Amino acid sequence: MILTKSIALSKEDLNNSSRRFTLYFPSDSEIRALIVYIHGGGLLCGHAQDLPALHREQLVGKGYAILAIDYPLAPQAKINTILDDVIDSINKCFEVTDFSSELPLFVWGRSAGAYLTLLASASKKLHIKLNGIISYYGYGFLCDRWYDTPSTYYAELPAVDEASTKIHDTDNVYRGSIDTYYSTYICKADRQVERLDIRRTR
């Protein structure tokens, strides 16, 4: 049987109360290891509860505990803020779960979460030993500056109007729907690519 526990960091821990964890653990077996799960969403959207039920059931059924974490999302948060938050969550994983720090620890990320997993594991700010990482279709290049260097390809496209990118809420957002920014940052660019391709073929 899978037990679920919601955990929130206090204001004293984080200087705000937005960060939450969801812990999945077995009720009837010894815990073999702790897995910190980092969700995907292109850094723009997503939440810790997006972990498919099949994964939860298979892993927890084998005795693994999963700590699914939220992290601040773009565009309100920049990459360094996002990464620092993820690293801090990993550093606190045994503290917030009350599990023994002697347990093996793995960090598992999907897509953008896998990218953050790889960056966090290579950071000197990570003060906790990892026994391994699980990367589900993450970005493979960590040091080519792709995330903060404008793409020459997309730079040729018409700019998205400023009104569409205006951020009304400047506080960190830890959970986001795909509908919030996808249409501005992804769909508009894709539609512009399609229009340019049509023009080029005429």
From TrEMBL:
One of its GO terms (molecular function) is hydrolase activity. Pfam families: Abhydrolase_3 (PF07859). Residues 35-191 form the Alpha/beta hydrolase fold-3 domain. SUPFAM superfamilies: alpha/beta-Hydrolases. It comes from the Bacteria. This is Alpha/beta hydrolase fold-3 domain-containing protein. The lineage of its organism: Bacteria, Bacillati, Bacillota, Clostridia, Peptostreptococcales.
